[in-house]
Amino acid sequence: MHRVVITGIGQISSLGNDAETFWKNIKAGKCGIRPITNFDASGINATLASEAQEFDPSETMDRKEHTRMDRFSQFGVAASVEAVADSGYDIEANADNVGVFVSTGIGGIEEIEKNVIKVYEKGPKRVSPLFIPMIIGNMGGANIAMKVGAKGANLDIVTACASGTNSIGEAFLKLKYGFLDAALAGGTEAPIQEMGMANFDSIRALSPNPDPKTASRPFDKDRDGFVMGEGAGVLFMETLESAAERGAEIIAEVVGYGTTNDAYHMTAPRPDGSGATKAMDLALKFAGLEPTAIDYINAHGTSTPANDIAETKSIKTTFGDHAYDLAVSSTKGHTGHLLGGAGGVEGIVIAKALQEGYIPATIGLENPEEGCDLDYVPGQGREQAVQYAMSNSLGFGGHNASIIFKRWEGE
To answer: Please, which residues have CB within 8 angstroms of residue 236's CB and are 6 or more apart in sequence?
Structure first.
C-alpha cells in the first residue's frame, strides 16, 4: 500500500493554455464563456460556449502529429506535456511503470461530423483513412503515451461527465496498490461542434441565455441549463516513495475515492441524490475520514434544474449538520462544463485550493433556489485554509464519482 501524491498539473481551457494562467483566472473570477465561434450557432437556442480560443497545438506538437489527431486528443496531449514538465519526472527511465488514465466522454465528434458530411456529399471513398483512429476515445490516452513515452496501463474510462474524476480515482488505485509508480490522469473533451451542441440543445440541457455572465449560474433559482466547455485537465500522480526519492515538489496528496451508479435514468440523477451520497460516503470511508474533516467541495454544479438540487440534497445527507459549515462551489461558471474533461480541470482546482488556501467562487449565482442553502461562495472567492477537499462529478447514465485530496504539509 502506497501513499499517492500529485507532483504536476497541466490544463487547456477558455481560461488559458497552462495551469498557472488558469488558476490565476479562477482566483480573479474570470468568466471564459463567450459567443460560439467554432461553428455557426444561429440554428440552435444556445449561442454561448467556453471555447479554448487561444489554443495552438503547434506549441507542443509538430504538424504531422497534431493533424492526425482530433481536437480532444490535441488538448489531452498538450495538458499532459505540461503536467510531465511540471512534475520533473523522467518517464524514459521508468516507462513501463508509468500509466495514462486520461479519458473523454464523447471522443472525436469533430471528425465524425466532418466525415459524415463527406460521405453524403462526396461518397464513401472520400472518408479519411484516419477516421477511426482519430475518433475513438482511447486515442486520447494513446496519443499522450506516444508523445511522452509512457508504456504502463493506458485506460479510457468512459462514464460521461464523471470520466475525468473516475480516471483520477482509478489511477489512484493502481498507484496505491503498487501496479504503477506514476500516472497521468484526468480528462479531455472537444464537444463544441454543431452535431454535439445540437443534441444537447434539443434535450434542453443547454442554457439559451445570451448573457455570458449569467448563462451558467449553478444553484440559482433562474438557472436554465449548462454552458458547454472544452479543454483538458491532467494531473501527474506518483507514489510518495517515488516523489520523495527524487525530491519532487508535492502539490497535494490523493487520499479518497468513491464511485457508484444511480441505476435510475439515462440523463437525470435520482432526485434524492442518493447515488452521489453513496459515492461521497465511499470516498470518505476509503480515506478513513469523518465527514467533518472536509473543508471544501468542488461540486459538479452544472446549473441545470435537476442536478443542483439533487447534489445539494446528497451533500446534506452525507455531511449532516457539517454541510452548513463547509464551503461548496462550482467553477463551471468560469469554465463551462467540459463533460468528460470536467473532472480533470476540477481536480486541478481542488489541488490548488489546498496548496494556496483559496476557495474559488460560484460566479453567476445571485439568488439561490429554495433548498439550495449551503455556503456556495457566491460572487467572489476567499482566502481560507483547506486541509481536505473533495470534487464531485456526476454523469449521464447515473455515473457518480468523488475524490478527496489532502493538503501537503511535508509529512
So the answer is: 6, 7, 8, 9, 10, 83, 84, 86, 87, 89, 182, 183, 184
> Which residue is catalytic, options 161, 171, 255, 386?
161
Tell me whether residue 372 is one of the annotated catalytic residues.
no
pTM: 0.97
Q: What kind of fold does domain 4-245 have according to CATH?
A: Peroxisomal Thiolase; Chain A, domain 1 (3.40.47)
- Selection from 303, 404, 317, 292 nearest residue 353 by Cα: 404
Q: Is 122 exposed, middle or buried (0-12, 13-18, 19+ CB in 10 A)?
A: exposed
Query: Would you say 238 and 83 are in contact if contact means Cβ atoms under 8 Å apart?
Result: no
264 phi/psi in degrees, rounded to 5? -135, -55
Cβ–Cβ < 8 Å for 309, 371: yes
Residue indicated by cell numbers 518517464: 91
Quick one: 263 exposed, middle or buried, by C-beta within 10 A (0-12, 13-18, 19+)?
exposed
Residue 386, amino acid: V
The pairing of beta strand 98-103 with beta strand 182-189? parallel
Contact 47, 209 (CB under 8 A): no
For domain 256-407, give its CATH number from 3.40.50.300, 3.40.47.10, 3.40.50.970, 3.40.50.2300. 3.40.47.10
231/188 Cα distance (integer angstroms):
6
Beta-carbon count within 10 A of 322 CB: 15
Contact yes or no for 188/232 (Cβ under 8 A): yes
Please write the tens of the pLDDT for every residue from 292-342. 999 999 999 999 999 999 999 999 999 999 999 999 999 999 999 999 999
Q: How many CB atoms lie within 10 A of CB 42?
A: 7
Domain with CATH 3.40.47.10 in the chain: 4-245, 256-407
pLDDT digits (tens, 9 = 90+) for 41-90: 999 999 999 999 999 999 999 999 999 999 999 999 999 999 999 999 99
d(CA 106, CA 116): 16
